[in-house]
C-alpha cells in the first residue's frame, strides 16, 4: 500500500483513496491479542488487492475516459489497448516485483516524467503559500511597459514577487522586499519569459491578458499539471518510431524522426465552435497544388450568402460551381441560379481550384480519418497572433514547404526541394504517396515541459480542462465514499469480535 500512499506523485488525488483508512482497517482486523487470524487476513487481502487493481487501472488508463470530457463523436479518440492487470499483478507478487508493475503502468513518455518533476515543484510552491493574489476587478484597464509614460505602477512589486515565485525572475534576498514601482529592464525580461511560458505574445507589455495568467493561483497550476498527466494515460502505449504531434492549445506541430525531434512549426487550429478533433492516424500522402472541395457546412453557412449577394467573388477567388441534375453533374455560372430560392446545397458542390487564393495554399498532408481533418498550407498571415484558434477545424501550417521537403526526403531522387517547389506552384494537382509511415497525434496539452526544463501553460481554448476537472472531482468523491464504507464494515467486524469475546 506504500504506492497508494504516494499516489499524488503520479498526479492522482491522494485524498480520494482515503489512505489513512487503510491503517485503520488493518488495526480493525487485528485480533484482541494483536494477531491476525486467517478469515480476517483473507478479508484484508481481498480489500488491498482491490485497491491495488484500482490504483493500477487509474495509473495505466486514467480515472476517466476521454469521451467523458467531450461526448461529440470522434472529438477525442486514441487507440487503446487493454491489459490484463489481474495477471500482471499476480505475476508481480509471485516474483516480488511490485515496483516493476507500478513503473510499467505509468505512461512511458519523457513528457510524463517531466510533468512529475514539475508537479513536485508546484506542490512545493503551494505548500509555501503560493504567490500573491491579483484582483482583476481593480485593474480592468492597465498598461505597463518600458516607456517613460508607462514604466511605473503600484502593481509592479506584486508582479516582481510573483515572477520570483514562478522562477521567471531571480531575486537576491535583499531584493525580495523591494517595493519599487519602477518597471525596469530586468523585470521586463522576466515578464517576457513568463509570456513565452504561458503562450502569450512575447512583447514585455503588462496588460490584461498577462494579468489573467498571473492571477491564476499556484493551486490551479498544480491541478492543470495533474490534468495533463491524466491525458497522457489516454495515449497509445507507443507514439511510433516516426511521428508528428500537433498540440492544439499551444499552436505548435513537432515532427519526431526515429524518436528525435527534427522539425517544428507554428500552426492554426479550429475555433472554439469548430474544434479540431483529437485522434491519431497515419499520414499516407501529400497533395501538391491541391484543390479545395468545400464542405457542405461552409457552402451553406458562408458561401451561399455570398452567392445571394452576387458580384465577382467566385471568379476572383478561382471557384468552380457544379450542379447535380438528372443528366449528371455539370459546371454552372454563379449567376445561373436564383440562390435566394435555394435552401439546401445538397445538389451543388463548390471547388476552389489550385492557385494563390486557394484556402489550402500550395500543399496539404493527408492522414485519412473519419473527421476529414488534414494539415495544409494557407494564404493567411496571422501566425504572429498569440491566439491561433482560427480555422474551421483543419490544421494550418506556418512552414508547410519545409515540412514537405522533410517528409519527401524518402523520395529524394524524384522529389528534390526544387521539384517540390515547382509542383506546389504549378497549379497541376498531384498526389505523392509515402512509403515511410508517419503517425499523426493531435493532442490537447495545456501543460508541457520544454527541453530546458521550463514548464509551459496554455489557455483552455475548448474548455476541456474545466470539464475534466469537474468530472474527476465527482469520481474522486465516489472513490472516497467507497473506501470509507469499507472502513466502517471492517470496524464493525472488530466490534462484533470483541462483543463475542
UniProtKB/TrEMBL annotation:
Pathway: Cell wall biogenesis; peptidoglycan biosynthesis
Keyword presence, Cell wall biogenesis/degradation: yes
InterPro entries noted in UniProt: LD-transpeptidase_YkuD-like, LD_TPept_cat_dom, LD_TPept_scaffold_dom, Peptidoglycan-bd-like, PGBD-like_sf, PGBDSf, Transpep_catalytic_dom
CDD domains for the chain: YkuD_like (cd16913)
BP GO terms, sorted: cell wall organization; peptidoglycan biosynthetic process; regulation of cell shape
Domain annotation L,D-TPase catalytic: ranges: 242-421
Active site: 376 (proton donor/acceptor), 394 (nucleophile)
One Gene Ontology molecular-function label: carboxypeptidase activity
The family this protein is said to belong to: Belongs to the YkuD family.
Name under which the protein is recorded: L,D-TPase catalytic domain-containing protein
Organism: Bernardetia litoralis (strain ATCC 23117 / DSM 6794 / NBRC 15988 / NCIMB 1366 / Fx l1 / Sio-4)
Lineage, opening ranks: Bacteria, Pseudomonadati, Bacteroidota, Cytophagia, Cytophagales
